[in-house]
Amino acid sequence: MEIRPTTDQDLDVFVDTLHAAFGRFPETPTEGGGVWWSALEMDRGLLALTADGRPVGTAGAYAFELTLPGEILVPAAGVTAVGVLPSHRRQGVLSAMMRHQLTELRAEGEFLSVLLASEALIYRRFGYGPATYTQRLTVPRHQAALALPRARGRADTPATGSDTGTIELLRRAECGEILEEVYDRYRRAQPGALSRPHRWWALGAGQPPVASAPRYVAIHRDADGVPDGYASYSTGEPSTLTVDETIAADDAVFTALARFVLGHDLVTQVVFKHFPPEHPLRWQFADFRAGQVSGDTDWLWVRLLDVPRALTARGWFMDGDSSSSTSTTRSWASTAATC
Fold first, then answer.
1. Where does the record place the region Disordered (predicted)?
2. Which of 90-104, 162-176, 240-254 has the lowest average pLDDT?
3. Which residues contact 52 (CB under 8 A, 6 or more apart)?
């Protein structure tokens, strides 16, 4: 078996082999939209070939930035498109590709790699471990009322985190540049967030709202009119409003966007597909039991390729004494990944 790097000329073979590995057929690009593989970086891909030159496995990587505590941005390889034909599984193809990829990444000076794991058991074998988590939150509309915030201090003093912004409703096709800008500002301040290269947005290569699939987008603007958050959503049967993604500069903006989608008419429930487990929204419902959590699962997995560089790259949010038991820092869950 041979494992070789790919070039742009290998794109069709790479895509066909990957889809065959998962028993699927490549979808046809829609008008004005792209397909996720249109943004593949073919100079970072691998093909596994049999002795007679037949492709049987694929692996790829994106060049990302990952945000660490302290708003530190570091390069990270985003592993993607890993697959082996059913006819060649359990024959060492995957192990050979992953070892080859890790060796190449180290040789290129990378010290972190990340991925979304289709199966949890597979990637632990290659040193990856879960670093961030996500949930699905379902809220019946008849229980969706949020409690009124309690007054704090003097009556003429606004409560901490109060929202003074506005929300504008747009279609996805009308606000691509706004979404890209808002997400980029958000991810630079959010530990564990990945960059989304401009070409993804330009090509519509990804899941909504990066993809240009029909969506409504609630854009939140601050008191000066600057966009600082959005919620991308669609409605469907059975009378469900599904939120693809909510990005917000702070909890007050998130709450404002949540209040907007929860107040939508003619739906019986609102589903947040990716809801941060630590977010306080569930405690803001008038009925605490309104939010029904499901799909509590891992999201981003991390592999430390150079442990000292990875750990020392982190920043800190304040000066502190390491001997103090009350020092305040934010932990980076990625350090729990297996090395």
1. 320-339
2. 162-176
3. none
Which of 50-64, 73-87, 322-336 has the least mean pLDDT? 322-336
Alpha-carbon distance 227 to 167, whole Å?
A: 9
- Beta-ladder partners of 169: 218
Q: Are residues 148 and 253 in the same domain?
A: yes
Instruction: Return the pLDDT at 164.
Output: 81
Q: Is the pLDDT of residue 83 over 70?
A: yes
Among the listed residues 100, 70, 75, the one whose alpha carbon sits nearest the alpha carbon of residue 330: 70
6 Cβ contact list (under 8 Å, min separation 6): 14, 42, 43, 45, 46, 47, 60
**pLDDT mean across residues, the chain:** 88
> Do residues 38 and 120 share a domain?
yes
pLDDT digits (tens, 9 = 90+) for 124-181: 999 999 999 999 999 999 999 999 776 554 444 334 456 789 999 999 999 999 999 9
Sign of CA dihedral 134, 136, 141, 147: negative
**For residue 26, how many C-alpha atoms fall within 13 Å in the half-sphere facing its CB?**
16
CATH number at residue 84: 3.40.630.30
328 and 249 in a common domain? no
Copy the structure tokens of residue 141.
């509309």
Contact between 26 and 19 under an 8 Å Cβ cutoff? The reply is: yes
